[in-house]
Amino acid sequence: MLSDIAYKKMLWHSRRGMWELDILLLPFAENKLRSLEPAEQALYERLLEEEDQDLFACLVERTSHPDPKIQALVVRIRDYAASGVRRPH
């Protein structure tokens, strides 16, 4: 189970230097992060270690992440964003 401190830390790190990343990552983190399995939460934390430009390239399908497990999470984030969830202002 994700502790409140770990959740808040990952939520904070989901705020990036690019607004485009914020609109993809924040809704997913706010609404789905706590319900992920611990292994998936660890993958999300690894995903947040990526440089903004590399992360953006994966999220907008310019490239695939070399780790297939992280790529699967990227697809889930993209699908969630495409589902019409609310975006941060």
Automatic annotation (TrEMBL):
The keyword Transcription does not apply. It is found in: Cytoplasm. InterPro entries: SDH (IPR005631), SDH_sf (IPR036714), SdhE_FAD_assembly_factor (IPR050531). It holds the Pfam family Sdh5. The keyword Nucleotide-binding does not apply. One of its GO terms (biological process) is succinate metabolic process. Keywords: Chaperone, Cytoplasm. GO terms for cellular component: cytoplasm. This is FAD assembly factor SdhE. The lineage of its organism: unclassified sequences, metagenomes, ecological metagenomes.
